[in-house]
User: Fold this.
Amino acid sequence: MIYYQKLRVEEKKKEVIESMIEKKKFEKLKERYLINLMNEIKQLENKELDRVVSYKIYKGIGDRSGRD
Assistant:
């Protein structure tokens, strides 16, 4: 009976270890996803800022040329 219980305990330990490994894998995947998402958001923000700056520069050039 004790032998059987020891085997069960060892089996459960293995299951816990495997679960912990899986959890770490998912945490890493989540971290990578969030980093990629943040990078994508930064790229979109930079693109939008470039668009706004280009528009303001273009508009400023147009305003100056119209005043001459």
Notes: The mean pLDDT is 91. The radius of gyration is 29 Å. The CA atoms of residues 34 and 57 lie 34 Å apart.
